[in-house]
Amino acid sequence: MLRIRNLDVSYGPVAALRRVSLHVNPGEIATIIGANGAGKSTLLRSIAGLAPARGGEVLFRGSPVLGLRTERIVALGCSLVPEGRQVFATLPVRENLLIGGSVRVRRGLRREVEGDLEMVYRLFPRLQERERQLAGTLSGGEQQMLAIGRALMARPALVMLDEPSMGLAPLVVKDILLTVERIAAGGTTVLLVEQNARSALRVARRGYVLENGRVVLEGTSEELLSNRDVQRAYLGSEVMP
Amino acid sequence: MNVQADREAMDRKELEQLQLERLEATLNRVQRSVPFYQRRFAEAGFDAEALRSLADLRRLPLTEKRDLRDNHPYGMFAVPLRDVVRVHASSGTTGLATAVGYTRNDLKTWSDLVARVLVAGGVGKDDVVQVAFDYGLFTGAFGFHQGAERLGASVIPVSSASARRQVGIMKDYRSTALVCTPSHAMTLADAALDAGIRPGALSLRFGLFGAEPWSESMRAELQAKLKLVATDNYGLSEVGGPGLAGECLERQGLHVAEDHFLVEVIDPETLAPVPDGTVGELVVTTLTREAMPVIRFRTHDLASLTRAPCACGRTLARMSRVKGRTDDLLIVKGARVFPSEIEAVLLEVEGTEPHYEIVLERRDGMDEALVRVEATHPGDEALRASVERRLASELGVAVLVELVPPRTLARSVGKARRVIDRRRPG
Q1: What's residue B242's pLDDT?
Q2: Is residue A98 part of a domain?
């Protein structure tokens, strides 16, 4: 689905990502964990065409996407749910979702977009209840649902989630992660970036650990959960089996 | 046929992507945590960040056994000792052995890889696996023990019991798989005959033999004598022990666990890579080891590599049997002995000359090493016994000593041929 080789990204003279290589298999949930500032968001933004890369290769479903405009990447089937939701606060929920489907509307798939709206409402009944409410008046959890729903409106093959649990109450986080599993079960591949490593590794099958812009570990979630470095740095405890 | 499709039958492109990811992560970790590699890379002018492809690997410096020894015991570890749950040592004499550490994840990966070797060799969860390697610091016994348990087979850790006892257990417990060195398997086959046990009376089906070089003719003999299918496997303690490579039932080369190891074949003189099919020295880089990653370790074992498809369905490259050594290492009764170590002892003993030869023979299936050395008083029995004792304690394996009068051993110009190996071919 996604194959990245030696991706380099810098902000001015500061290297944000160094020689990052990773892949995501079709249908799986993969996760990238790491501390604040490790480069996790930069990585997703770079794949989505929002942060220019200095070098490397990003293949999405076999074709290179590095250097393409974001719109084009979304049209190819790769959507990003940005950190901090970034919903259009002054627009109603429904409009927010339709904007997510606009790529498809332009391709003459208006009727299908209506169907997609149904699909999103099935996934998040709460959004339907609040269809006409301005997005800015939603709770944090609801805004996150909206941001995910908006991304799904583009019917992506791969959805990238940037810190979906940020700032949410534990119960809401659980809800959101359940949704992530349902999205994957529905056939959409998921690349999940999380600071909450424990939750991320619970839903993902495989993961990468990013440290100072470099991948230092790759493995199944089980392996990462039992790695002592991961336990110390990201799980906050040394778990005994 | 028992092939794990997602690991052993990966598409080459997918496999190379995974190898690159794991190689880069490994380099990032050693660069961060192993001062030896920080220094080594800096000296070689190698910037780990500059590695862009698997082919760039050959620009990295090689790691020698000496490097492991210089950083003995824990200098090569990439994790703190408290994260290490097991320490083994490479086989070899005391002076040469080096420590090998495993984290909990390393042990799990190791078990998985040895289970893979067992499955490739025909073993399944219903088998009764007799492990006749010596349990101890050596990785062979524990590696196969854990691998067989991982598989769910019944493990009999018979270790180094006498041949007679081994055979008795094999018969009574109806062992279906035997794990040991090929020479030990031969000893057991002969012991069975001596005890009047017909091969058909045993339940053996599979033999997984390794830890020393052997030949096709030996395979044929073992298969006939023990009525089993014999497969070869390869590994070395420095990179984690058995599990690196093992034959499938096609018996046309050993499948390398390429998702966990990068194996190169180089010309031992020029150090340049040699093409597939050409015999050269195996060089191994670990891709998933946490406790002790090793970058481009020189095995000094000679073999070739092929990426041609195998009838078993595995896409993993295959290495040939080990064809020999680039150095003069001798494997005597499973122990690793360098002639130079013998020489060092002889030089220290008063009354012997630095002229010697080592004769290796196999008697009743057992290796026998005889050291002939020139002495001023060849009849001095006390001297002879003391040299034998010294050698045994230094080498960790018993050798016989014969004193001969001065100037009786052949002198040669240039590199002396001091080893006469009369054991079976291979």
Answers
A1: 96
A2: no
Q: Where residue A164 sits, what CATH number does that domain have?
A: 3.40.50.300
Q: pLDDT tens for residues B308-353?
A: 999 999 999 999 999 888 877 787 877 777 777 787 788 788 888 7
Each residue of A147-169: pLDDT tens digit? 999 999 999 999 999 999 988 98
In a domain, A128, yes or no: no
Please give the CATH number for the structural domain made up of B331-421: 3.30.300.30
Instruction: Name residues whose C-beta falls within 8 Å of residue A215's C-beta, 6 or more positions apart in sequence.
Output: A20, A21, A22, A208, A209, B21, B24, B25, B28
Instruction: Find chain B residues with C-beta within 8 A of A9's C-beta.
Output: none
B12 reaches A (C-beta below 8 A): no
pLDDT at B185: 92
Q: Counting beta carbons within 10 angstroms of the beta carbon of residue A78, is it exposed (0 to 12), middle (13 to 18) or buried (19 or more)?
A: buried
Q: Which helix (H) or strand (E) holds A5?
A: strand A2-11
Q: What are the C-alpha distances in Å from B345 to residues B197, B353, B374, B396?
A: 43, 11, 14, 13
Q: Chain A closest CA to B59's CA: distance in Å?
A: 17
Mean pLDDT, all residues of chain B: 90
Rounded distance between C-alpha atoms, residue A234 and residue B412, angstroms: 65
pLDDT at site B414? 45
Q: pTM value?
A: 0.86
Give the count of domains, chain A: 1
Q: Which residues contact B314 (CB under 8 A, 6 or more apart)?
A: B3, B8, B9, B120, B248, B255
CATH T-level fold of B5-327: Rossmann fold (3.40.50)
**Who has greater pLDDT, B166 or A237?**
B166
Cβ neighbors of A37 (< 8 A, separation 6 or more) are: none
The beta-carbon neighbor of B17 closest among A23, A219, A227 is A23
Residue B415: pLDDT band by 50, 70, 90 thresholds? very low
Task: Specify if A60 maps to a domain.
Answer: yes
Our CA-based measurement puts residue A22 at a distance from the nearest CA of chain B, in whole angstroms, of 6
For residue B422, what are the CA distances in angstroms to A23, A156, B185, B355? 53, 69, 19, 20
Whether residues A215 and B21 touch (CB distance < 8 A) is answered with yes
B21–chain A Cβ distance below 8 A for any pair: yes
Q: Are B86 and B146 in contact (CB under 8 A)?
A: no
Residue A175 lies in a domain: yes
Burial class for A123, CB neighbours closer than 10 Å (0-12, 13-18, 19+) = middle
Q: Which of B17, B33, B54 to mutate to test the interface with A (most CBs of A within 10 A)?
A: B17
- Say yes or no: ipTM exceeds 0.90: no
Number of H helices, E strands in chain B: 11, 21
Most confident residue range from B23-27, B325-329, B366-370, B405-409: B23-27
Contacts A–B by Cβ distance under 8 A = 56
Domain region containing A35? 2-85+157-235
Residue B277 near residue B261, CB atoms below 8 Å: no
Domain extents in chain B: 5-327, 331-421
